[in-house]
Design goal:
Distance between the termini: 40 Å
Number of strands: 7
Order of helices and strands: EHHEEEHEHEEH
Helix content: 25-40%
Mean pLDDT: 95
Shape: globular
Number of helices: 5
Length: 177
């Protein structure tokens, strides 16, 4: 059974697990400075930093934002030794039922096989690919914008909602005005 547990930095062991998995799973340009992440975790009430449990064993992490009219998944990772075991599918099914509003996430441009596989995975879970150019703002000073695409689950449409979704993510997640 899948369970999400929201954590804070006071949850020392779980928070350490999350940081280690974040570092293992993402290039450093794809997540904010750890000190800033700790601050967001403890102070931003609409930011959810969660450990994913399967049968009471931690198997991954998922962070998301609640913007009222949609949710934005910022990071999602299953522990490397547990990947390809169905946990990702179970987590997304659970999350899509748990959250009452549409869900947005970013994916890499499908130029490499892993990026295409990721997109296919999300599409199998009911997400649609928005094929409109999108640039992920840098997390760290001196880094560049990263070309990405958005994917959506629920009743959001690329043509109608892209600009407002992008502006909200830029402003709230990346502090770009």
């Amino acid at each position: 059974m899948i369970k999400l547990q929201r954590i804070t930095t006071a949850d020392t062991d779980l928070y350490s697990y999350m940081e280690e998995l974040m570092i293992q799973s993402f290039p450093s340009k794809e997540y904010r400075e750890l000190e800033e992440l700790r601050k967001y975790t403890d102070t931003k009430t609409h930011f959810y930093n969660n450990i994913i449990f399967h049968n009471n064993m931690p198997v991954g992490l998922i962070t998301y934002w609640d913007f009222g009219h949609f949710h934005y998944i910022e990071h999602f990772a299953i522990a490397p030794t547990l990947r390809n075991g169905g946990h990702g599918k179970s987590v997304l099914n659970h999350l899509c039922q748990l959250l009452k509003h549409p869900i947005i996430l970013e994916v890499e441009i499908p130029e490499e096989e892993m990026a295409q596989r990721r997109i296919n995975f999300y599409q199998r879970q009911g997400f649609s690919l928005w094929e409109k150019p999108y640039q992920q703002p840098p997390y760290k000073v001196g880094d560049n914008y990263l070309p990405m695409l958005l994917m959506a689950y629920g009743n959001l449409e690329c043509e109608k909602d892209f600009d407002s979704v992008k502006e909200c993510i830029y402003r709230e997640v990346y502090n770009v005005k």
